[in-house]
Amino acid sequence: MYPLSVVLSLLVAACVAERKFPPGFKFGAATAAYQVEGAWNVSDKSPSIWDTFTHDNPDFIVDKSNGDMACDSYHLWETDIAVAKDLGLHFYRFSISWPRLLPNGHSNYVSEDGKRYYNNLINGLIANGIEPVVTLYHWDLPQKLQDLGKVGLTNQQLWCEPKNSDEEENAELIRNVFALFAYPIYSKTGGWPPSVEKRIAETSEKEGYSRSRLPTFTQEEIEFIKGTYDFYGLNYYTSRTVETAQPGEKLSWPVSGSWEFGLALSTDPSWKAGHAWLISYPPGIRRQLHWLKEKFGDIEFQILENGYATSEPVMYDQGRVNYYRDHLEQVLLAINEDKVNVTAYTAWSLIDNYEWSSGYTSRFGLVNIDFNDPNRKRTPRASAHYYAAVINSHSLDLPHH
């Protein structure tokens, strides 16, 4: 381990005004079980759907890798806590591996080994003054449950700008599509977003369905679901522009658009290019927060994922520093100018990890993992020093050294 020293020369531009975060605002970092734990078949852990997928379909992964060892956080949890403490994190968000804790998929059998691992991690975080924030499910369904049925659900949220001035109505439609599963819970009226419900009903009728493919809520269900929250968790990485699709245009939801809505998604050439799909557009996070406040009211928002990827294990990651700085500036503007009640910000990710279908070719970590080292050596990047300084000062106004 290398102790974090706050060395910030060349990392930040000169500051012209005080930019302090509100008292009580929290900074953290996040990971997910399959992406970091490894130890895929240790003790009585059963396979997850991602174990099966990567073992059976290596060609679907960019570098043909898997998460069998990943960052070996199952064995190196104390090292991860030390990294989090060096950063000064207020909280660490991690997920519990369903098949590690409940190998059969059900609570009729609880793994003692799984309980021990997560108790050690949670108690270790608390002992070091770091709040554990637990995600109950992060994509690693037990394979035993998957074998019982074929049900999948995904919800991705992007900020959408109209590509042209006359496309605002279409952009608003897609914003509501990305908020489809939030609307029944957070809206004052409950139920689906009306514009999305109307469009899907129309396309369903055109396709010969006897009823809309979007199930209808009963009034009892609307009232039962509505308002069942304590806060709104937002994952934001990037934005897209929206325009009417051209005849014959190839569209793939959610990357390039949807023929369901007849709309194409793309990016503005002026936005900063990043790795793969991740185009940096910092104003998008502010606009997303403001839109959500306007849509759902003055509720508490926690940013649960925001981060930047590189394809190489670069240590002086100025692009990531810029990404975090620029997005945190927009979060502050949302708090101070738009009066959005944002109470927490989570960097994705604390350490490099197994990035799903990108394997180990996409690196999000504040801390570099040497995946060629059997000990999975951890080394803080420049962005880790920057983020630690922001946390330490509770501000974006950082001194030069």
Automatic annotation (TrEMBL):
Gene3D superfamilies: Glycosidases. It comes from the Eukaryota. Pfam families: Glyco_hydro_1. Keywords: Glycosidase, Hydrolase, Signal. This is Myrosinase 1-like. Belongs to the glycosyl hydrolase 1 family. It comes from Pieris brassicae. GO terms for molecular function: beta-glucosidase activity. InterPro entries: GH (IPR017853), GH_1_N_CS (IPR033132), Glyco_hydro_1 (IPR001360). One of its GO terms (biological process) is carbohydrate metabolic process. The keyword Hydrolase applies. Residues 1-17 form the signal peptide.
